[in-house]
Queue: 2 jobs
Job 1
Amino acid sequence: MTVIVIGGTPGTGKTEVARVLGSLLSVEVFSLGQLADDAGCVKAIDKARNTGVVDEDCLVDAIISLLEKKKGRLIIEGHYIDLIPSKEVEHAFILRTHPQVLRERLKQRGYSEAKVAENVEAEVIGVCQMDALDAFDEEIVSEIDTTSLSPRETANKIVEILNSGGDQNRIDWMEMLEQEGRLDDFLRE
């Protein structure tokens, strides 16, 4: 069993890229959000943030159960990727999007101003990147800037990285925005 993991801030393209990649590789795709729902792991709703609160122990059990049932390679996308047992992970891809573009995408989705700000700030400081690097060996974590890539282009880039043995590209929006004098535009007080 080997798992290709796709993570990232909401709006970076995880779900669509995973779907395209699954088609390219003829591999089954699973969403951690759907798995959490199906396994009854969403224990409450955070009304202020308009999001489900997941029981992580429950989700770990659901992930382990899924991995025990499946054979061969599969793709798992979503949040909570750090709960996937690292020994099962072939490669983790963190999708990144320029904070200005991400802000617009999330507004178009109808996210509240507070939720947009929270997710843009998470992208700027690299929360998903840090979670992946804490959970998995650095050599198997790659970041892809999806700002100007289509889901197919992103999936093709993932295939290239898988075939070449890796790419430890690191994206630092904080440094870039600081150099541009725009960092404060993307961080909450």
Note: Helices lie at 14-25, 32-38, 56-69, 99-108, 113-125, 127-135, 151-164, 173-180.
Job 2
Amino acid sequence: MNKLSKKFIERVASNLKKYQRITLAQQKSDVAEADTVTLVKDILADVFGYDKYDELTSEHQIKATYCDLAIKIAGKLRLLVEVKSAGSSLADNHLRQVIDYGAHQGIHWVILTNAVEWRLVRIYVAKQISHEEVCRIVLADMNPKNEDHLQCLFLFAKEGLTTDAMDAFHQQAQLFNKFTVSAIIRSDAVISVVRREIRRLFPDIKVGNENLSLMVENEVIKRDTIEGDKAKEAVARMRKALNKLERAKNKVTKVVVADLAS
């Protein structure tokens, strides 16, 4: 969890409520996209702490097209912001557009927003461009007295960008998610514990690890946590962690044996 500065907390407390009212009013009025861009710049400045004149650049050109806003810290491009009108719903094609923008600029983070909803997205560029949504907030739902809400808002703020809070949050999200939990539940160690507990509670039931593992995979766990690249990555991370623990255990064992032999 990020340590939130007094300056950040006070700024959010002073300005958030005002912009919650404005964003909902503009959403209801279905204002033009240009008006929403102006509002987003105000929010980025007054709530999230960016300097409107030195750090926010409008209509940032990327090859033959433009991104609505770019955020520069100390003259270095750090974040792209794609804005849609307040009355429109954010759609997948909007996300693809801003991801394409970021990939061409070598930027790892982009924001997609209509002033009402804010999405923070991590971009990966390897053999092909891919992305992962890291955080999504609805500004009107945020409570400046709620620690979890403040932590989410912090990810979009200048303080979060300059302290690499986005990357830290993303790493945490990669480790603690439904795919990791699913992989752990399906591991031999957990299956063995469940089997022993079943036999302890119901002595007449005879069940092996293999049958129990199949039941967990086919009837208990949701399929989307078992299949796909993210599920495979979670299993790989779990095995890597287990191997690390095993190596540490073996190292301690060797030290103890050496001490006893001396």
Note: The mean pLDDT is 85.
